Protein backbone atom coordinates (compact mmCIF):
# COMPACT_ATOMS: atom_id res chain seq x y z
CA UNK A 1 0.00 0.00 0.00
CA UNK A 2 1.22 3.46 -0.89
CA UNK A 3 2.15 5.62 2.06
CA UNK A 4 1.35 9.30 2.13
CA UNK A 5 3.45 12.30 3.05
CA UNK A 6 2.77 16.01 2.80
CA UNK A 7 5.77 18.26 2.38
CA UNK A 8 5.25 21.98 2.88
CA UNK A 9 8.47 23.74 1.98
CA UNK A 10 7.18 27.15 3.10
CA UNK A 11 6.66 26.01 6.66
CA UNK A 12 10.03 26.22 8.36
CA UNK A 13 10.42 24.43 11.67
CA UNK A 14 13.78 25.48 13.06
CA UNK A 15 17.37 25.04 12.06
CA UNK A 16 19.17 21.69 11.99
CA UNK A 17 22.37 22.46 13.84
CA UNK A 18 25.21 20.89 11.88
CA UNK A 19 26.64 19.70 15.21
CA UNK A 20 23.91 17.07 15.20
CA UNK A 21 26.34 15.34 12.83
CA UNK A 22 29.15 15.43 15.40
CA UNK A 23 31.64 12.71 16.29
CA UNK A 24 33.40 11.15 19.24
CA UNK A 25 36.92 9.71 19.44
CA UNK A 26 38.09 8.11 22.66
CA UNK A 27 41.35 6.56 23.79
CA UNK A 28 39.73 3.19 23.35
CA UNK A 29 40.94 0.22 21.33
CA UNK A 30 42.21 1.30 17.94
CA UNK A 31 40.29 4.56 17.65
CA UNK A 32 42.97 7.14 18.49
CA UNK A 33 46.04 4.92 18.16
CA UNK A 34 46.18 3.30 14.70
CA UNK A 35 42.86 4.79 13.62
CA UNK A 36 43.90 8.43 13.80
CA UNK A 37 47.38 8.70 15.28
CA UNK A 38 50.17 6.62 13.75
CA UNK A 39 53.14 8.81 14.68
CA UNK A 40 55.46 10.76 12.45
CA UNK A 41 57.74 7.77 11.74
CA UNK A 42 54.95 5.53 10.50
CA UNK A 43 55.07 4.19 6.93
CA UNK A 44 51.35 5.02 6.77
CA UNK A 45 51.07 8.40 5.04
CA UNK A 46 50.58 11.01 7.74
CA UNK A 47 50.92 14.68 8.55
CA UNK A 48 52.68 15.27 11.84
CA UNK A 49 51.64 11.78 12.96
CA UNK A 50 47.97 11.95 11.91
CA UNK A 51 46.72 9.64 9.13
CA UNK A 52 46.11 11.53 5.90
CA UNK A 53 43.47 9.11 4.61
CA UNK A 54 41.34 9.42 7.75
CA UNK A 55 41.57 13.22 7.76
CA UNK A 56 40.54 13.36 4.13
CA UNK A 57 37.63 11.00 4.72
CA UNK A 58 36.33 12.96 7.69
CA UNK A 59 36.68 16.26 5.87
CA UNK A 60 34.57 14.81 3.11
CA UNK A 61 31.65 14.41 5.50
CA UNK A 62 32.18 17.95 6.85
CA UNK A 63 32.76 16.74 10.39
CA UNK A 64 31.58 19.70 12.45
CA UNK A 65 32.71 18.83 15.98
CA UNK A 66 34.82 16.14 17.64
CA UNK A 67 34.51 15.00 21.25
CA UNK A 68 37.65 13.76 23.03
CA UNK A 69 39.35 12.12 25.06
CA UNK A 70 36.40 10.05 26.37
CA UNK A 71 34.02 8.56 27.41
CA UNK A 72 35.03 6.66 30.49
CA UNK A 73 38.65 7.44 29.66
CA UNK A 74 38.03 11.14 30.29
CA UNK A 75 37.48 10.64 34.01
CA UNK A 76 40.83 9.00 34.45
CA UNK A 77 42.75 11.17 32.03
CA UNK A 78 45.27 13.58 33.46
CA UNK A 79 45.99 16.06 30.73
CA UNK A 80 49.40 17.08 32.04
CA UNK A 81 50.66 13.57 31.23
CA UNK A 82 49.92 14.27 27.56
CA UNK A 83 51.88 17.46 26.88
CA UNK A 84 55.59 18.18 26.43
CA UNK A 85 58.19 16.09 24.57
CA UNK A 86 56.52 12.86 23.55
CA UNK A 87 59.33 10.53 24.64
CA UNK A 88 59.13 11.95 28.14
CA UNK A 89 55.38 11.59 28.53
CA UNK A 90 54.10 9.33 31.27
CA UNK A 91 52.94 5.86 30.32
CA UNK A 92 49.76 4.79 32.04
CA UNK A 93 47.39 1.84 31.99
CA UNK A 94 44.08 2.32 30.22
CA UNK A 95 42.18 0.41 32.89
CA UNK A 96 38.77 0.89 31.29
CA UNK A 97 39.65 -0.27 27.85
CA UNK A 98 41.67 -3.45 27.57
CA UNK A 99 44.27 -2.67 30.24
CA UNK A 100 46.74 -1.62 27.56
CA UNK A 101 49.57 0.86 27.96
CA UNK A 102 48.64 4.41 27.04
CA UNK A 103 51.81 6.27 26.11
CA UNK A 104 50.12 9.66 25.98
CA UNK A 105 51.58 10.43 22.58
CA UNK A 106 48.25 11.83 21.51
CA UNK A 107 47.49 14.68 23.89
CA UNK A 108 46.11 18.20 23.86
CA UNK A 109 48.41 19.57 21.15
CA UNK A 110 47.80 16.61 18.88
CA UNK A 111 44.04 16.80 19.38
CA UNK A 112 43.93 20.50 18.64
CA UNK A 113 46.09 19.93 15.57
CA UNK A 114 43.66 17.24 14.41
CA UNK A 115 40.72 19.63 14.81
CA UNK A 116 42.58 22.26 12.82
CA UNK A 117 43.23 19.77 10.04
CA UNK A 118 39.58 18.73 10.06
CA UNK A 119 38.41 22.32 10.38
CA UNK A 120 36.03 21.21 13.10
CA UNK A 121 35.26 22.46 16.60
CA UNK A 122 36.94 20.75 19.55
CA UNK A 123 34.73 19.35 22.29
CA UNK A 124 36.87 18.38 25.26
CA UNK A 125 35.58 16.34 28.16
CA UNK A 126 37.22 17.09 31.51
CA UNK A 127 37.92 14.81 34.44
CA UNK A 128 35.58 15.10 37.41
CA UNK A 129 35.70 11.45 38.55
CA UNK A 130 39.39 11.30 39.48
CA UNK A 131 40.67 14.78 38.74
CA UNK A 132 40.78 17.94 40.77
CA UNK A 133 39.14 21.30 40.22
CA UNK A 134 42.60 22.80 39.90
CA UNK A 135 43.56 20.32 37.19
CA UNK A 136 40.46 21.13 35.15
CA UNK A 137 40.87 24.84 35.65
CA UNK A 138 44.53 24.71 34.61
CA UNK A 139 43.70 22.75 31.48
CA UNK A 140 41.37 25.51 30.33
CA UNK A 141 44.02 28.10 31.23
CA UNK A 142 46.65 26.12 29.30
CA UNK A 143 44.53 25.96 26.21
CA UNK A 144 42.92 29.38 26.12
CA UNK A 145 44.88 31.99 28.12
CA UNK A 146 46.76 34.46 25.97
CA UNK A 147 48.83 36.49 28.42
CA UNK A 148 51.45 35.60 30.99
CA UNK A 149 50.42 32.79 33.33
CA UNK A 150 52.03 29.55 34.49
CA UNK A 151 49.91 27.40 32.19
CA UNK A 152 50.02 29.75 29.19
CA UNK A 153 53.79 29.97 29.55
CA UNK A 154 54.01 26.19 29.65
CA UNK A 155 51.91 25.92 26.49
CA UNK A 156 54.29 28.28 24.73
CA UNK A 157 57.30 26.28 25.95
CA UNK A 158 55.60 23.26 24.42
CA UNK A 159 55.45 24.95 21.05
CA UNK A 160 52.03 26.58 20.88
CA UNK A 161 52.36 30.34 20.96
CA UNK A 162 48.74 31.35 20.46
CA UNK A 163 45.91 30.04 22.63
CA UNK A 164 43.47 27.74 20.91
CA UNK A 165 39.80 28.46 20.48
CA UNK A 166 38.01 26.00 22.70
CA UNK A 167 34.30 25.87 22.02
CA UNK A 168 32.76 23.01 23.94
CA UNK A 169 33.77 21.63 27.31
CA UNK A 170 32.14 18.72 29.12
CA UNK A 171 32.38 18.66 32.90
CA UNK A 172 32.78 14.92 33.39
CA UNK A 173 31.33 11.92 31.61
CA UNK A 174 28.79 9.35 32.80
CA UNK A 175 29.28 10.45 36.37
CA UNK A 176 26.45 8.13 37.36
CA UNK A 177 28.72 5.23 36.29
CA UNK A 178 32.33 5.04 35.12
CA UNK A 179 32.79 8.72 35.95
CA UNK A 180 32.48 8.22 39.71
CA UNK A 181 29.26 6.30 40.45
CA UNK A 182 27.70 9.46 41.84
CA UNK A 183 24.17 10.29 42.80
CA UNK A 184 22.65 13.15 40.81
CA UNK A 185 22.53 15.42 43.87
CA UNK A 186 26.24 14.94 44.48
CA UNK A 187 27.25 15.32 40.84
CA UNK A 188 25.08 18.38 40.51
CA UNK A 189 26.98 20.07 43.34
CA UNK A 190 30.30 19.00 41.86
CA UNK A 191 29.21 20.29 38.48
CA UNK A 192 28.45 23.71 39.96
CA UNK A 193 31.84 23.77 41.63
CA UNK A 194 33.99 22.49 38.73
CA UNK A 195 32.32 24.62 36.09
CA UNK A 196 33.03 27.76 38.13
CA UNK A 197 36.69 27.42 37.20
CA UNK A 198 36.10 26.64 33.54
CA UNK A 199 36.80 30.25 32.70
CA UNK A 200 36.36 32.33 29.61
CA UNK A 201 39.72 33.91 28.88
CA UNK A 202 40.52 36.50 26.26
CA UNK A 203 37.21 36.43 24.48
CA UNK A 204 37.05 32.65 24.26
CA UNK A 205 33.50 31.62 25.08
CA UNK A 206 33.09 28.09 26.35
CA UNK A 207 29.81 26.26 25.98
CA UNK A 208 29.64 24.20 29.19
CA UNK A 209 28.06 20.78 29.07
CA UNK A 210 26.92 18.98 32.20
CA UNK A 211 27.12 15.20 32.33
CA UNK A 212 23.61 13.93 31.75
CA UNK A 213 21.50 10.87 32.18
CA UNK A 214 21.90 7.28 31.19
CA UNK A 215 19.04 6.25 28.90
CA UNK A 216 15.80 6.69 30.88
CA UNK A 217 17.15 7.98 34.16
CA UNK A 218 14.72 10.89 34.24
CA UNK A 219 15.47 11.62 37.86
CA UNK A 220 19.04 12.51 36.88
CA UNK A 221 17.75 15.08 34.40
CA UNK A 222 15.25 16.40 36.93
CA UNK A 223 17.88 16.94 39.62
CA UNK A 224 20.45 18.46 37.27
CA UNK A 225 17.93 20.85 35.78
CA UNK A 226 16.45 21.79 39.12
CA UNK A 227 19.75 22.42 40.84
CA UNK A 228 22.18 23.50 38.15
CA UNK A 229 20.38 24.66 35.03
CA UNK A 230 21.62 28.21 35.31
CA UNK A 231 25.26 27.09 35.22
CA UNK A 232 25.06 25.04 32.05
CA UNK A 233 24.71 25.59 28.32
CA UNK A 234 24.10 21.96 27.51
CA UNK A 235 23.07 18.75 29.24
CA UNK A 236 24.11 15.43 27.81
CA UNK A 237 22.26 12.18 27.26
CA UNK A 238 23.66 8.75 26.36
CA UNK A 239 21.74 6.00 24.63
CA UNK A 240 23.06 3.06 22.64
CA UNK A 241 21.09 0.77 20.34
CA UNK A 242 21.72 -2.76 21.62
CA UNK A 243 19.59 -5.54 20.13
CA UNK A 244 20.24 -7.95 23.03
CA UNK A 245 21.29 -7.30 26.59
CA UNK A 246 24.42 -5.44 27.63
CA UNK A 247 25.81 -8.02 29.99
CA UNK A 248 24.45 -11.28 28.63
CA UNK A 249 24.89 -10.86 24.88
CA UNK A 250 24.35 -7.82 22.74
CA UNK A 251 24.04 -9.67 19.43
CA UNK A 252 26.45 -9.98 16.54
CA UNK A 253 27.28 -7.17 14.15
CA UNK A 254 26.99 -9.54 11.16
CA UNK A 255 25.28 -12.89 10.61
CA UNK A 256 22.34 -11.94 12.82
CA UNK A 257 18.79 -13.31 12.44
CA UNK A 258 15.75 -11.36 11.19
CA UNK A 259 14.40 -10.72 14.67
CA UNK A 260 17.60 -8.88 15.57
CA UNK A 261 17.15 -6.66 12.55
CA UNK A 262 13.64 -5.78 13.70
CA UNK A 263 14.52 -5.24 17.34
CA UNK A 264 17.47 -3.04 16.34
CA UNK A 265 15.12 -0.76 14.40
CA UNK A 266 12.68 -0.73 17.29
CA UNK A 267 15.39 0.20 19.76
CA UNK A 268 16.81 2.88 17.48
CA UNK A 269 13.35 4.46 17.30
CA UNK A 270 13.27 4.53 21.11
CA UNK A 271 15.57 7.55 20.91
CA UNK A 272 12.49 9.60 20.10
CA UNK A 273 10.76 8.65 23.36
CA UNK A 274 13.89 9.44 25.35
CA UNK A 275 14.27 12.88 23.81
CA UNK A 276 10.61 13.65 24.39
CA UNK A 277 10.66 12.59 28.03
CA UNK A 278 13.99 14.18 28.97
CA UNK A 279 12.95 17.20 26.89
CA UNK A 280 9.74 17.61 28.87
CA UNK A 281 11.75 17.82 32.07
CA UNK A 282 14.13 20.32 30.50
CA UNK A 283 11.14 22.37 29.31
CA UNK A 284 9.88 22.63 32.87
CA UNK A 285 13.03 24.45 33.98
CA UNK A 286 14.06 25.98 30.67
CA UNK A 287 10.95 26.77 28.63
CA UNK A 288 12.95 29.05 26.33
CA UNK A 289 15.12 26.07 25.36
CA UNK A 290 18.34 27.94 26.09
CA UNK A 291 20.02 24.72 27.20
CA UNK A 292 20.90 22.30 24.46
CA UNK A 293 20.30 18.59 24.75
CA UNK A 294 23.67 17.14 23.80
CA UNK A 295 23.44 13.47 22.88
CA UNK A 296 27.16 12.95 23.01
CA UNK A 297 27.09 9.16 22.77
CA UNK A 298 24.77 7.17 20.57
CA UNK A 299 24.93 4.36 18.04
CA UNK A 300 24.87 0.59 17.80
CA UNK A 301 26.70 -1.56 20.30
CA UNK A 302 27.15 -5.22 19.35
CA UNK A 303 29.37 -8.06 20.54
CA UNK A 304 32.96 -7.48 19.48
CA UNK A 305 34.25 -9.18 16.35
CA UNK A 306 35.32 -12.76 17.21
CA UNK A 307 38.99 -12.98 18.12
CA UNK A 308 39.37 -9.28 18.93
CA UNK A 309 40.14 -7.78 22.34
CA UNK A 310 36.81 -7.52 24.22
CA UNK A 311 38.00 -4.21 25.68
CA UNK A 312 38.50 -2.69 22.24
CA UNK A 313 34.84 -2.67 21.16
CA UNK A 314 35.64 -3.34 17.52
CA UNK A 315 32.58 -4.25 15.45
CA UNK A 316 31.65 -4.50 11.79
CA UNK A 317 29.10 -2.17 10.33
CA UNK A 318 26.31 -3.17 7.93
CA UNK A 319 23.37 -1.74 6.07
CA UNK A 320 21.51 -2.22 9.39
CA UNK A 321 23.83 0.37 10.96
CA UNK A 322 23.13 2.71 8.05
CA UNK A 323 19.40 2.52 8.75
CA UNK A 324 20.01 3.10 12.46
CA UNK A 325 21.99 6.24 11.59
CA UNK A 326 19.28 7.48 9.23
CA UNK A 327 16.52 6.94 11.80
CA UNK A 328 18.52 8.79 14.44
CA UNK A 329 19.06 11.77 12.18
CA UNK A 330 15.37 11.98 11.42
CA UNK A 331 14.59 11.95 15.13
CA UNK A 332 17.28 14.55 15.86
CA UNK A 333 15.85 16.78 13.11
CA UNK A 334 12.39 16.41 14.64
CA UNK A 335 13.78 17.77 17.90
CA UNK A 336 16.13 20.38 16.47
CA UNK A 337 14.71 23.01 18.78
CA UNK A 338 16.31 21.21 21.74
CA UNK A 339 18.94 18.84 20.33
CA UNK A 340 21.93 21.03 19.52
CA UNK A 341 24.68 18.47 19.20
CA UNK A 342 25.10 14.72 18.98
CA UNK A 343 28.26 12.62 18.76
CA UNK A 344 28.13 9.15 17.32
CA UNK A 345 30.27 6.58 19.11
CA UNK A 346 32.81 6.37 17.63
CA UNK A 347 34.72 7.77 14.69
CA UNK A 348 37.20 4.99 13.82
CA UNK A 349 37.43 1.27 14.70
CA UNK A 350 35.13 1.45 17.74
CA UNK A 351 31.38 0.68 17.94
CA UNK A 352 29.36 2.29 15.13
CA UNK A 353 32.30 3.77 13.27
CA UNK A 354 32.57 5.74 10.09
CA UNK A 355 35.88 4.20 9.19
CA UNK A 356 37.64 0.89 9.77
CA UNK A 357 41.39 0.54 9.39
CA UNK A 358 43.78 -2.38 9.18
CA UNK A 359 47.39 -1.27 8.90
CA UNK A 360 47.57 1.11 5.98
CA UNK A 361 44.15 0.00 4.66
CA UNK A 362 41.03 2.03 5.31
CA UNK A 363 37.39 1.37 4.41
CA UNK A 364 34.20 3.38 4.70
CA UNK A 365 31.32 1.81 6.57
CA UNK A 366 27.68 2.07 5.48
CA UNK A 367 27.28 4.52 8.38
CA UNK A 368 29.93 6.76 6.82
CA UNK A 369 27.91 6.87 3.63
CA UNK A 370 24.80 8.04 5.49
CA UNK A 371 26.82 10.85 7.08
CA UNK A 372 28.07 11.77 3.63
CA UNK A 373 24.62 11.67 2.02
CA UNK A 374 23.03 13.63 4.87
CA UNK A 375 25.57 16.47 4.97
CA UNK A 376 23.07 18.40 2.83
CA UNK A 377 21.01 18.84 6.01
CA UNK A 378 23.80 20.60 7.95
CA UNK A 379 22.58 23.98 9.20
CA UNK A 380 19.58 23.79 6.86
CA UNK A 381 16.04 24.80 7.83
CA UNK A 382 13.85 21.90 8.80
CA UNK A 383 10.64 22.06 6.78
CA UNK A 384 7.24 20.56 7.56
CA UNK A 385 6.76 16.97 6.48
CA UNK A 386 3.89 14.86 7.77
CA UNK A 387 4.04 11.17 7.09
CA UNK A 388 1.41 8.49 7.32
CA UNK A 389 3.47 5.34 7.18
CA UNK A 390 2.15 1.82 6.81
CA UNK A 391 3.06 -0.94 9.20
CA UNK A 392 6.21 -2.97 9.01
CA UNK A 393 5.08 -6.15 10.73
CA UNK A 394 7.22 -8.80 12.32
CA UNK A 395 6.24 -11.54 14.78
CA UNK A 396 3.08 -9.71 15.80
CA UNK A 397 4.81 -6.38 16.34
CA UNK A 398 4.69 -3.31 14.13
CA UNK A 399 6.88 -0.33 13.33
CA UNK A 400 6.36 2.43 10.79
CA UNK A 401 7.87 1.10 7.57
CA UNK A 402 9.27 4.43 6.42
CA UNK A 403 10.68 7.50 8.07
CA UNK A 404 11.08 10.83 6.28
CA UNK A 405 12.69 14.18 7.00
CA UNK A 406 13.14 17.33 4.92
CA UNK A 407 15.17 20.51 4.99
CA UNK A 408 15.79 23.58 2.85
CA UNK A 409 19.24 25.06 2.41
CA UNK A 410 20.26 28.68 1.81
CA UNK A 411 20.02 28.31 -1.94
CA UNK A 412 16.45 27.09 -1.59
CA UNK A 413 17.21 23.47 -2.49
CA UNK A 414 14.97 21.07 -0.62
CA UNK A 415 16.36 17.70 0.48
CA UNK A 416 14.10 14.85 1.51
CA UNK A 417 15.65 11.83 3.18
CA UNK A 418 13.74 8.58 3.41
CA UNK A 419 14.49 5.32 5.21
CA UNK A 420 12.72 2.08 4.43
CA UNK A 421 13.51 -0.07 7.45
CA UNK A 422 11.63 -3.13 6.20
CA UNK A 423 14.07 -5.97 5.59
CA UNK A 424 11.80 -7.68 3.02
CA UNK A 425 9.40 -5.31 1.32
CA UNK A 426 9.56 -2.37 -1.03
CA UNK A 427 7.97 0.84 0.14
CA UNK A 428 6.00 3.19 -2.05
CA UNK A 429 5.67 6.74 -0.86
CA UNK A 430 3.64 9.52 -2.37
CA UNK A 431 4.86 12.97 -1.37
CA UNK A 432 2.39 15.77 -1.90
CA UNK A 433 4.69 18.77 -2.32
CA UNK A 434 3.42 22.23 -1.47
CA UNK A 435 5.31 25.46 -2.15
CA UNK A 436 7.62 24.05 -4.80
CA UNK A 437 6.90 23.20 -8.41
CA UNK A 438 8.68 20.01 -9.35
CA UNK A 439 9.26 18.09 -12.51
CA UNK A 440 11.33 15.00 -13.18
CA UNK A 441 14.09 17.32 -14.33
CA UNK A 442 14.57 19.14 -11.05
CA UNK A 443 14.58 16.11 -8.79
CA UNK A 444 17.65 13.93 -8.32
CA UNK A 445 18.43 11.20 -5.88
CA UNK A 446 20.97 8.88 -4.31
CA UNK A 447 20.39 5.57 -2.56
CA UNK A 448 22.26 3.34 -0.16
CA UNK A 449 20.89 -0.18 -0.08
CA UNK A 450 21.85 -3.85 -0.11
CA UNK A 451 20.26 -7.21 -0.72
CA UNK A 452 21.41 -8.83 2.52
CA UNK A 453 20.66 -7.69 6.06
CA UNK A 454 24.31 -7.84 7.01
CA UNK A 455 25.82 -6.48 3.81
CA UNK A 456 29.00 -4.63 4.72
CA UNK A 457 32.33 -3.49 3.41
CA UNK A 458 35.47 -5.44 4.10
CA UNK A 459 39.15 -4.84 3.51
CA UNK A 460 38.91 -7.18 0.51
CA UNK A 461 35.67 -5.70 -0.81
CA UNK A 462 35.50 -2.10 0.27
CA UNK A 463 32.66 -1.07 -2.03
CA UNK A 464 29.96 -3.67 -1.38
CA UNK A 465 27.75 -1.00 0.15
CA UNK A 466 28.02 2.48 -1.28
CA UNK A 467 25.61 5.13 -2.51
CA UNK A 468 24.53 5.14 -6.14
CA UNK A 469 22.26 7.28 -8.26
CA UNK A 470 18.57 6.77 -7.58
CA UNK A 471 15.81 7.35 -10.07
CA UNK A 472 12.90 5.18 -8.97
CA UNK A 473 10.65 8.19 -8.66
CA UNK A 474 8.20 9.98 -10.91
CA UNK A 475 6.31 13.22 -10.77
CA UNK A 476 2.57 12.51 -10.92
CA UNK A 477 -0.46 14.67 -10.50
CA UNK A 478 -0.79 13.70 -6.84
CA UNK A 479 2.85 14.44 -6.10
CA UNK A 480 6.18 12.71 -6.17
CA UNK A 481 5.99 8.93 -6.17
CA UNK A 482 9.02 7.20 -4.78
CA UNK A 483 9.65 3.46 -4.72
CA UNK A 484 12.23 2.30 -2.23
CA UNK A 485 13.67 -1.20 -2.08
CA UNK A 486 13.88 -2.96 1.30
CA UNK A 487 16.63 -1.78 3.65
CA UNK A 488 17.32 1.50 1.94
CA UNK A 489 18.25 5.09 2.64
CA UNK A 490 17.41 7.62 -0.06
CA UNK A 491 18.20 11.33 -0.30
CA UNK A 492 16.31 13.39 -2.87
CA UNK A 493 17.25 16.90 -3.93
CA UNK A 494 14.65 19.26 -5.40
CA UNK A 495 15.05 22.79 -6.64
O1 LIG B 1 31.69 4.66 23.86
C1 LIG B 1 32.11 3.69 24.75
C2 LIG B 1 31.79 4.01 26.19
O2 LIG B 1 30.42 4.00 26.37
C3 LIG B 1 32.20 5.36 26.70
O3 LIG B 1 33.52 5.40 27.11
C4 LIG B 1 31.31 5.55 27.86
O4 LIG B 1 31.06 6.90 28.14
C5 LIG B 1 30.06 4.77 27.49
O5 LIG B 1 29.62 3.97 28.50
Describe the structure.
The protein has helices at 52-60, 108-118, 133-144, 150-157, 184-196, 218-228, 258-285, 319-334, 366-373, and strands spanning 3-15, 22-24, 46-47, 50-51, 65-68, 92-94, 100-102, 121-126, 168-171, 207-214, 234-241, 292-300, 339-345, 355-358, 361-364, 381-388, 391-394, 397-400, 402-408, 414-420, 427-434, 443-449, 468-469, 473-476, 479-484, 488-494. The longest helix is centred in the middle third of the chain and has 28 residues, at 258-285. The protein is α/β, with parallel strands linked by helices and 495 residues long. Alpha-L-arabinofuranose binds next to loops.
List the keywords:
single chain, 495 residues, alpha/beta, ten-stranded mixed beta sheet, 23% helix, binds alpha-L-arabinofuranose, carbohydrate metabolism, non-reducing end alpha-L-arabinofuranosidase, glycosidase, Glyco_hydro_b
